[in-house]
Amino acid sequence: MPEAPELEFRATIVKQGPNPCVDVPERVSRAFRPWARSGRIHVEGLLNDTPIRGSLIPTGAGRHRFFVNGGMRSAARVAAGDSVVFALRAVVPDQVTIPADILEMLRCTKDAESAFKALTPSHRRELLRYVDDARTRQSRIKRTSRMIDTVLNKGRPAKRRRPRRPLWVCPECGNEFVNRNQYHSCERFTLAHPFAGKPEEIRELFDAFLGMVEECGPVKVLPSRDSIVLMVRVRFARAVPRTRWLDVGFWLPRRFEDSRFHKVETISPGAHVHVLRITGIEQLDSQVAEWLRDAYSVGCQEHLS
């Protein structure tokens, strides 16, 4: 595949819910289309002369959106409402460029560089994204060190477990959260909302999935306009009904490389969201049940003990 051109455009950072982002011009989406995978396009380049990396997220009709995370905003000294200049180029899906400062730290630790390069491209990209999200230079160094410990399978010293504090209850909607005043929508929904206009078999897939989770223990079902979140003490799984399938994602404390996963996203070295695309009940087998038991433990916060 030929090297992608570098394209420049100006855009204003706006907020999509709590997340600052920009809408990518149609000409950029069209030019980078050959490098798309599942609609997403991995890119790297500059934000106001500050090096960045990320993904163009499809929004429909061939258009994309780029989320400007806290690390990018901090490094480039920009905020929501600012007009900024991007110079981006698409990268081959399996191509992962290691920033100079991270490469230097990898090379200063025995076996770290080779261990990192032995990971799958998607895992390397997710770990680098975790580091890139750091908002200060000091935080970036700490995150890089934690990433290196992860790739070398070094265990973190056990921490003394703190007593669990009560969940915070929103006075407006009654929903529960671990963190006080956590951002959320108080709008109320029922299970009818995310399944509106969807075939009956999609609801049947969700009911089967929910049944597997409930075999692990009690669970709170929190529907929104287009998805359903499952919670014990914290939210640990999410189902998104589609017209032809059900996407289910769950949080696991370690990353699994399995061809059955539609995608795996590393939120931090100890938090990995695994997404399955379910088209038939037969896919909800004993292996999925095992993954869900681990995810349910995360929902109970047992992974912190």
Characterise this structure:
This protein has helices spanning 26-32, 70-76, 100-107, 112-117, 121-132, 137-151, 200-214, 286-299, and strands at 7-12, 14-16, 19-24, 41-47, 50-60, 63-67, 83-90, 168-169, 176-177, 220-223, 228-231, 235-241, 246-252, 261-268, 271-278. The chain is an alpha+beta fold and 305 residues long. The strands form 3 sheets. It has a 7-stranded antiparallel β-sheet with strand order 1-7-4-5-6-3-2. The protein has a 6-stranded antiparallel β-sheet with strand order 10-11-12-13-15-14. Strands 8-9 form a two-stranded antiparallel sheet. Strand 2 (14-16) and strand 3 (19-24) form a beta hairpin. It is globular and about 50 Å long. Mean pLDDT is 87; it is low at 156-160.
Structural class: alpha+beta
Mean pLDDT: 87
Q: What is the terminal-to-terminal distance? A: 47 Å
Largest sheet: 7 strands, antiparallel
In what range is the share of β-strand residues? 25-35%
- N-to-C series of helices and strands: EEEHEEEHEHHHHEEHEEEEEEH
- Please give the number of β-strands: 15
Radius of gyration: 20 Å
Low-confidence stretches: 156-160
Helical fraction equals 25-40%
Strand order of the largest sheet: 1-7-4-5-6-3-2
